[in-house]
């Protein structure tokens, strides 16, 4: 795995990072995100959606683009457009999968997008899967030991349990370190930490943990 795939969904435009520097990368469009990619001069490698969120004019542009991989679905389905798109993306075995346009707007959509990362096969995927907007980077991790580097533009690091318990959570190189701490779902103990050194580690023996790297 040595390639990177970007996914664009239909979240608020103001939260989506600048696409110009990465226009030549491999993109996947999700529902209204397909229109946004085409509008930006980007032809997605694949497109997924029921397209109930696009106008007739926007659909005309999408439909006339004759995309190589166009996957359309009825609104009544068991999997979300995002889940279907991510399933296709991980089949390509990228080393990093970056999801844009998945935050803001409807909270149920955001929560569903974030929780997808905690489900198989996404949780166990050996590459990095991240949700990115102008202010945050979100990743979800199974138990293990992880090394992270300081990011100047996103200095705050929060950990949110997605399982009933996260056991033996240890934070090293942080302003507020921890040693073998049990953290339960709903706890705010690990909100708004910072790295004191250029690198740090977090580890835990059991559970599922979301990491959110943010800026004010």
**Whole-number average pLDDT?**
94
Q: Return Rg in Å.
A: 18 Å
- H/E series: EEHEHEHEHEEEEEEE
Detail the poorly predicted runs.
none
What is the makeup of the main sheet? 12 strands, mixed
Q: What is the name of the CATH superfamily of the largest domain?
A: Thiamin pyrophosphokinase, catalytic domain
The percent range for helix content is: 10-25%
Using the 3D structure, state the CATH architecture of the largest domain: 3-Layer(aba) Sandwich
Query: Given the structure, what is the number of helices?
Result: 4
What global shape is seen?
elongated
Q: How does this structure look, described?
A:
- This protein is of the alpha/beta class and 216 residues long.
- The protein has two domains: 1-134, Rossmann fold (3-Layer(aba) Sandwich), CATH 3.40.50.10240; 135-216, 3-Layer(aba) Sandwich (Rossmann fold), CATH 3.40.50.10240.
- 18% of the residues lie in helices and 37% in strands.
- The protein has helices at 32-39, 56-64, 81-91, 107-116, and strands at 4-8, 26-30, 46-49, 70-72, 96-100, 128-132, 136-149, 156-161, 165-172, 178-184, 193-194, 199-214.
- Strands 1, 2, 3, 4, 5, 6, 7, 8, 9, 10, 11 and 12 form a twelve-stranded mixed β-sheet that branches.
- The longest helix is centred in the middle third of the chain and has 11 residues, at 81-91.
- It is elongated.
- The two termini are 33 Å apart.
- 33% of the residues are buried.
């Amino acid at each position: 795995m040595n390639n990177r795939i970007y996914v664009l969904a239909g979240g608020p435009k103001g939260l989506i990072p600048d696409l110009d520097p990465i226009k030549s990368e491999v993109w996947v469009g999700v529902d209204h995100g397909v229109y946004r990619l085409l509008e930006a001069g980007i032809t997605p490698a694949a497109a997924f959606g029921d397209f109930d969120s696009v106008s007739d004019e926007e659909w005309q542009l999408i439909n006339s683009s004759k995309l190589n991989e166009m996957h359309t679905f009825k609104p009544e389905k068991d999997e979300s457009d995002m889940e279907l798109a991510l399933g296709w993306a991980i089949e390509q075995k990228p080393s990093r999968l970056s999801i844009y346009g998945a935050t803001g707007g409807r909270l149920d959509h955001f929560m569903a997008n974030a929780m997808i990362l905690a489900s198989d096969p996404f949780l166990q995927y050996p590459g990095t899967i991240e949700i990115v907007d102008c202010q945050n980077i979100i990743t979800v991790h199974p138990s293990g030991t992880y090394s992270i580097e300081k990011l100047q533009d996103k200095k705050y690091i929060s950990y949110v349990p997605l399982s009933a318990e996260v056991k033996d959570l240890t934070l090293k190189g942080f302003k507020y370190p921890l040693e073998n701490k049990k953290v339960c779902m709903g706890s705010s103990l690990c909100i708004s930490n910072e790295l004191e050194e250029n690198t740090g580690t977090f580890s835990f023996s059991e559970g599922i943990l979301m990491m959110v790297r943010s800026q004010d």
